[in-house]
Write a structure and sequence with these properties.
Structural class: alpha+beta
Helix content: 40-55%
Bound molecules: zinc ion
Strand order of the largest sheet: 1-2-3-4-5
Distance between the termini: 37 Å
Shape: globular
CATH topology of the largest domain: DNAb Helicase, Chain A
């Protein structure tokens, strides 16, 4: 995470107008000095979501939701802390300066502006030039009408280089910016990056264009079917998911996603109401994409890639990545040689819904796929298949899923469970964990316990001040061991004692060191169940107390065992040890 200068964050904090931010996403009605809206965080008929004019926080009297602009963007749009800061900086036109020593990247605001201009230029080319009309004709043939094109702002990159550059020059965009945005190739010729292709803008969580996916529509055009913006400061190939800006909210709410292969498939599904769909960039769907979706809370994925060999092969790989991380995978049985776009156009959304309901679980799909060239009648063929799938299952990280899947594999293939090795998998898993990296695990244990503690404080510090009191009364700052956690905790306590503002941005300004700021944003990204706040916070405090208590005992034991103390000292130590032992730590209210 880039660390921004205190001054620029301070300017941003002063300039944020909460009402302005909310009004983009909610239907705010003014009543006196307050604004009211239907709360986006719970279902209601009459508005209890309120923000006072000039105030930095909103509050819902229905469900207790409470927060500032950053929290709103994080909770409502599922942005990360950093995304929220950057999107606010752009909205309120505050250039974020990076602290010296951090690598200065290109100005993201300028890149987004250039890309927005390019998006409009491409759309103009598609709709208003003879060359564009050929591409338009192709789109019409694929059942894509004008409404669809305008809704998703499809465009056309012309075959002749130079026009985009001239147009953007007229908008005061420099060549350098165009290169950094991935619109222009570097070098003498300064050729357009995209040529003779239909362009699909790719947007970030706040809807700003960060790149393009461009599809050729003539066989003879050079290059693959789709090409994407190269890696830029905005466009990170390994994480960008096409369509996510339209689907993000529902994916996070329903914890379910549909993954497809092509950009047109994704847009068609979204257009037809399945706004829980994303496409990987081509079939290059990797760990980064899985992580991105898991960070939105996804626990179930429908794979709806094309019904051909390439699609099936990709689904076996992508499915594995999700299963490995404990996400349930279902494979939508598209007819042979069909794709979601074609299917929807032919049969309509209701049939697609039915098709989804008849999805295969991943394991059944895999057995069918892997056995396509094998004879299941022959014992050798069957044994080979079972072994290879069992091996794959054992590489997954979730013991329960491994166990259940092995049992299922036995059932599907009708091979006895003992042969597949059901029941033996846990032993080997535990063994690997123990022998591999004990050192690392002890360090992580501190980090896990302490960031849990700090997370609840951050989340509840305003709606439930008793959390802070409990923390203050039980956990002195020195009791925390991870420096970044200690720093954040110290800052929360200080701000509270001094009655200073304690919104996330102020905190981040006060913390003022890169490692802690990074941890702050990571801590906040984890999904938690606020209904269990009291219990979970209590557990976190207790774990810290227990840990330190155990260690005090260990310390005394070590002293006794070193044998360098006199008899009197030893007897004193033993007394201390016994007192400590019979007084396990309890949380003081
Ligand atoms: Zn509410």
């Amino acid at each position: 995470m880039p660390v921004f200068s205190k001054e620029s964050l301070e300017t941003l904090r002063r300039r944020i107008d909460l009402v302005d931010v909310l009004s983009v996403h909610l239907d705010l009605k003014r009543t006196g000095a307050a604004y009211k809206a239907l709360c986006p965080f719970h279902d209601e008929k009459s508005p209890s979501f309120i923000v006072q004019k000039g105030d930095t926080h909103y509050h819902c009297f229905g469900c207790g939701a409470h927060g500032d602009a950053i929290q709103f963007l994080m909770n409502h749009l599922k942005m990360s802390f950093l995304e929220a800061v950057e999107s606010l900086a752009q909205r309120f036109q505050v250039p974020l300066e990076q602290v010296e020593g951090e690598k200065q990247g290109p100005n993201k605001g300028l890149l987004k502006e250039a890309l927005e201009h390019a998006c409009r230029f491409y759309q103009f080319m598609l709709l208003h030039t003879p060359e564009g009309h050929q591409a338009l004709h192709y789109l019409y043939q694929r059942g894509i009408d004008l409404k669809f094109i305008k809704y998703f702002q499809l465009g056309y990159a012309p075959s002749v280089s130079g026009m985009l550059r001239r147009t953007l020059h007229a908008k005061f965009v420099k060549d350098e910016t165009m290169v950094e945005a991935g619109l222009l190739r570097e070098g003498e010729s300064a050729r357009d990056f995209f040529s003779e292709r239909i362009t699909f803008p790719i947007r970030d969580a706040s809807g700003a264009v960060i790149g393009f996916s461009a599809r050729k529509y003539k066989e003879e055009t050079f290059g693959g079917k789709y090409i994407n913006t190269p890696e830029t400061a905005l466009f990170k190939k390994s994480r960008v998911l096409f369509g996510l800006n339209y689907s993000r909210k529902r994916i996070a709410k329903e914890q379910t996603v549909i993954v497809v292969e092509g950009q047109i498939d994704a847009l068609r599904l979204i257009y037809e109401g399945f706004n829980i769909t994303v496409a990987g960039q081509g079939t290059a769907f990797g760990e980064g994409h899985v992580k991105e979706l898991i960070s939105l809370g996804v626990n179930k994925v429908y794979l709806a890639l094309d019904g051909d060999d390439a699609g099936h092969s990709a689904m076996s790989k992508i499915g594995h990545l999700f299963q490995k991380s404990g996400v349930e995978v279902l494979v939508v049985p598209l007819p042979l040689k069909s794709d979601p776009d074609a299917f929807l156009r032919k049969y309509g959304p209701e049939h697609f819904e039915k098709l989804m309901e008849s999805s295969n679980d991943y394991l059944s799909f895999l057995v069918k796929y892997e056995s396509r060239d094998l004879s299941m009648e022959s014992p050798a063929g069957k044994s080979q298949l079972v072994q290879s799938i069992a091996k794959q299952i054992r590489s997954w990280n979730h013991p329960v899923m491994v166990h259940e899947s092995l049992r299922k594999l036995a059932h599907i293939t009708q091979v006895p469970e003992e042969i597949i090795g059901v029941g033996q998998e846990q032993i080997s898993n535990i063994y690997i964990k123990k022998s591999a990296n004990i050192g690392l695990q002890t360090i992580n244990a501190d980090l896990i316990v302490e960031s849990d503690f700090v997370r609840w404080l951050l989340l509840m510090r305003e709606s439930a001040p008793q959390f802070l009191q409990t923390a203050h009364a039980n956990v002195p700052v020195e009791a925390l061991r991870v420096p970044a956690c200690r720093r954040i905790y110290q800052t929360i306590l200080n701000n509270h004692t001094l009655g200073r503002p304690c919104d996330l941005l102020s905190l981040s300004i006060d913390i003022d060191d890169g490692e802690s700021q990074l941890l702050l944003s990571e801590i906040l990204e984890k999904k938690v169940n606020k209904e269990r706040a009291v219990q979970n916070f209590g557990e976190a405090v207790q774990r810290i107390l227990d840990r330190n208590w155990m260690e005090q005992r260990e310390e005394i034991r070590r002293k006794i065992q070193m044998g360098q103390s006199s008899d009197d000292e030893v007897s004193e130590l033993i007394k201390q040890f016994d007192i400590l032992k019979s007084n396990p730590p309890k949380i003081v209210a």
